[in-house]
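Record pair follows.
FIRST:
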Amino acid sequence: MSEGEVLFRFENMGIWQRGAGLSRPLFTLADQLDQRHCHRFAEQLRAATLSITNNIAEGSGSVSDADFANFLNISRRSVFEVANILIILSREGPLSAAEVHPLLLQLAEQSRMTLAFMRNLKT
C-alpha cells in the first residue's frame, strides 16, 4: 500500500472529506469545553461530530442506494445535532457567538451537500 492510496469509497466523497475537515475544529472546541469543565457537552459534541462521517462511511458500504440514503439521512441529522449543541452552548455562555458562527456556516454547507448527494442517489 502506498502513502495516499485510497482504500475505501468514502474517502473520495466530497461530503466525507468536508465532514472530516469539520471534525478538527469541532474536536478542538470539545477539548476547550473539557478545559472549562463542560465534560458532558464535550463528550456529546465529539460523538455527534464522529457520527457525521461515520454514517457516510458506513453507508458507502451499502449494497443499495436506498440503504446508503438512510445512512446519509442519519449523518445529516447528526449535523443538526452538532449545530444544536453549539447554539445552546453559545446561548448559555460557555462558548461565544463568534466561536460558533463560522462552524454553523460550515455545518449548514455540510447539510446542503449531504442532501444534494442523497437526492442524486435517488434519481
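SECOND:
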Amino acid sequence: MCCFLTILMFLGPRFATIVWYIAEPTRFALAFNGFLLPCLGFVFLPWTLLMYLAIWVPGVGVQGFGWVLLGLSFLVDIGTYAGGGYGNRNRLPART
C-alpha cells in the first residue's frame, strides 16, 4: 500500500486525492464539514489538502508536529505557483 501511495504522489496531488477519496470517502466526510473547503483545497492547495488528510486524526484533529508538516506542504504549494511564474518570466513580452 505504501508503494501505491508513493506512485500516486508522483503522478500528482490531485490524482492522489481523487484515488484517496474513492478509497476512503468517510475520511473526507469526517475531516471536513462541507464541500467547499476540500473543493478549494483540491483546486488551489492540493499538497496542503493531502497533508491535512494524512495527519488528521479522527476526534482529535491536527496536533503537534503535524502543524509543521502542514506548514511545509503549504510552502510547497506556494512554491509551485511562484516557481512557475519565475520560470516563465522570460516568455512574457516586455512592457515598453
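COMMENT: The longest helix spans residues 66-87.
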